[in-house]
Amino acid sequence: MTHLAPLDAQAQPPTPREAEILDAVRHVFAEKGFDGASMQELARAAGMSVGNFYRYFPSKAAMVEELIRHDLKDVEAHFARVASAPDPLATLRIALAERVRNYAEMCTDAPLRAEITAAALRKPELAIVVGRVEREITTYLVRAFGTATGLDFDTAWQRFAAHARLIVLLVKACTTRLRIGDVDGEALTVLILRQIDSLLDEVAAARPETSRT
Amino acid sequence: MTHLAPLDAQAQPPTPREAEILDAVRHVFAEKGFDGASMQELARAAGMSVGNFYRYFPSKAAMVEELIRHDLKDVEAHFARVASAPDPLATLRIALAERVRNYAEMCTDAPLRAEITAAALRKPELAIVVGRVEREITTYLVRAFGTATGLDFDTAWQRFAAHARLIVLLVKACTTRLRIGDVDGEALTVLILRQIDSLLDEVAAARPETSRT
């Protein structure tokens, strides 16, 4: 995790506690919000002095980038499996359905994600970080679309980048929706999965006739 | 605006500056975040002493409820027009398209909305407030669906509450999406409007054969 190397890495060897530090930071942000969390609190939670902490994270935006990049590794691994599957779109359908269902049931990281989105809309430096990561996720999806349809990346991007973005929005929407009284959560989940399916159907329709199943 | 009456309304007549106070509060929340904004700052922005301010807003959650209820009045007026239109679903389609297009272009209240969503996921007292308001919006939509299809409210709710919720989610998703590099915003907007249309088509299909246009 090169991002977490201290700024003067020559002088001090990298710490082995990165995952622990990120967990502590994640917890404080989720509980206090981006603006409510002070550098003092964040450093204390990570078990570090404020001075030392600043050497790892020059700003709260840098911390957030590290947090979402950490999560992105899971996403990357998922997409690697999708791209190498015999039927990438079918594998993607299953993976997205799992993700929507897990979010709907657990939603443990929903507060942090919502907090990052909100802070990004207020703070341009954070919007750049979040935009960069969202761009990467869109790229993974479009690459999978390209593999599945036989379109080259640029053509796939031109035709289906918006499809990829909307799929990400729908999955994210599941994480932030509040549970309200008597609306049947299961009916909403089914509807969202149906919307995702119809977007993937449109992508699949770009496959040459002979290779369609 | 009865919510804004001071707690001991007998002792003091209601202030005529409510809209001004709400604007000031909205601005501070949008800039500093829910947790970053202190009661002192909020009171100062509203031009009131902290003591007096507490009499109007016993908590930040109470302020947020007042803010979203204020916005809800616009929504209510929109839905009243939809319900009394000759073709409620067609009118709703146009109104939602306008809303999505306006959000995509202006997004001025996106930071505040995202902030409220994020804070609600962290704070149960705020989740109750936001859930109550979202429930009301869902009810307006389902009522419009009932009027359009001739279904009674309970049947319309059972069949289409999830449709209503997803439409709200899609419109909200437009407010929070970040603009990223080369993804064509217009293509995404078109896709979202198409999704909303397909949900409304499903509602329209519940109309008795004879009354379909």
How would you sum up this structure, described in words?
Chains A, B: Keywords: DNA-binding, Transcription, Transcription regulation. Chains A, B: GO terms for molecular function: DNA-binding transcription factor activity; transcription cis-regulatory region binding. Two copies of one chain form a homodimer. Chain A has about 210 residues and is mainly α. The first copy, chain A, has two domains: about 55 residues, Homeodomain-like (Arc Repressor Mutant, subunit A); about 140 residues, Tetracycline Repressor, domain 2. In chain A, helix 2 crosses helix 3. Chain A is elongated. The N terminus of chain A is likely disordered. Chains A and B meet through helix 1, helix 6, helix 7, helix 8 and helix 9 of A and helix 1, helix 6, helix 7, helix 8 and helix 9 of B.
